[in-house]
Amino acid sequence: MDPENKSKGPSPHYSLYQREVFKRGGETGELPTFSVHPEELQDSTRKKLNDRGYFYANSNAGLGWTDRANREAFYRWRIIPRTCVDTNTRDLTVNIFGHRIPAPIMFAPIGINKLYHPLGELVPAKIAGELGIPYCLSTAGSQSIEDVARANDTGASVRNESNSVWSYNGPNGGNAQSPRFFQLYMGHDDEITLSLITRAWKAGFDALMLTTDTWQLAWRPTDINIANYTFYYKNTPGNEIGVSDPVFMRKHGEDLEKDSGKWIDHSVWHGKAHTWEKVKWVIGEWKKISGGRPFVLKGIQNVADARRARDIGCDGIVVTNHAGRQVDGAVGSLEVLPEIAEAVGNDMTIIFDSGVRTGADVFKALALGAHVVEVGRLYVWGMSHEGEYGCRHVMKSLLADLDILMTVAGYQSIQKDVHGNKDALRYSPSGVPPGPGDHAKL
């Protein structure tokens, strides 16, 4: 970790973050305020949040078997290291929708971030801007579309003015701008839908992501136990995007004063599924509004749906089971990724989501055909501890983890050596990962 051995490649020297932590501890005794070991981090988050906040982030469908399946799928794929490879200059950059981003990681859409910190979505949006990686805002967010965009721009300004290893220059020398996603939960009032996506486009969100696996929330026993539906409680966050929307307020503002659940019940988790025809409609409307910018469908778990998404005009898909939160007893998302990537990976961008915890997880998803991965619970756990510092610490740690893994495993370039390279992995059909808390027994 010689600091003079700075990367001459296009990627920031993420691995130096480990050295920075070690140096602070050795020279001043300053230690991180919480563990970034994923299981320890989840455990400590339980102590930071009240029940409603903790279980909103961590509840799963049914018995939680799909969440377990996600982690088991990662466990069964094993990395095959190489040696004596010149990895002194590494390239973690990937191209996504015309943008070159410094690492194949993006912030997943998670709602109601004010449950984890008073500034809510402003925290991860700013950190994403600082790191130069994509941010995705949920329709169930607890800050307005416009305020989140400004926070993301603020983070990008910090990055552009910095000379640190976290600055990232684009392929032509200028500071790269990562794509900014708006994740749409589409209601059945087209006028409100058009208002939301128009606002997103005007605020600088240049990719639209439609979620199709959550027309309504799954049966989640740990939420049932405490009636954990924040929108039905008075003076709680979650209505901000609706309250800041002129069309919704014109139509339902008075109703919202009487029923705090009007926004969520009408326009977000309304319980009435859409069809492929409706998806085609919103693709067309987004393309008209944005001048043809990317449209991504989130919730793909099989080849037939992936092909259908491609054929109706989607530019990308998110292979995800909503992190095990919607269908209990379902396949792990990584299990179906290889066949989906083989079917459509040359035709569209594949984003992977569900169960990503480490740099090794990122590596495996990319080797199995994903172009970029989404990270969700990790950054929520981080911001629950220390706000901006916590979110930044978790994401810098994940980037350092991936960078160091590339070095010690002998892989120089994400796009040339890892993406779609199944020879970098071996599948083991037996065994399951350690259960929660087992790390403490080792």
From TrEMBL:
Active site positions: 322 (proton acceptor)
UniProt domain FMN hydroxy acid dehydrogenase: residue ranges: 30-427
Binding-site residues, FMN: 109-111, 138, 183, 211, 298, 353-357, 376-377
Highest taxon above the source species: Eukaryota
Stored SUPFAM superfamilies: FMN-linked oxidoreductases (SSF51395)
Molecular functions (GO terms): FMN binding; oxidoreductase activity
Keywords attached to this entry: Flavoprotein, FMN, Oxidoreductase
Pfam family membership, one: FMN_dh
Cofactor(s) annotated in UniProt: FMN
InterPro entries recorded: Aldolase_TIM, Alpha-hydoxy_acid_DH_FMN, FMN-dep_DH, FMN_HAD
Binding site for glyoxylate: 56, 185, 220, 322, 325
Record-stated family: Belongs to the FMN-dependent alpha-hydroxy acid dehydrogenase family.
The protein's name: FMN-dependent alpha-hydroxy acid dehydrogenase
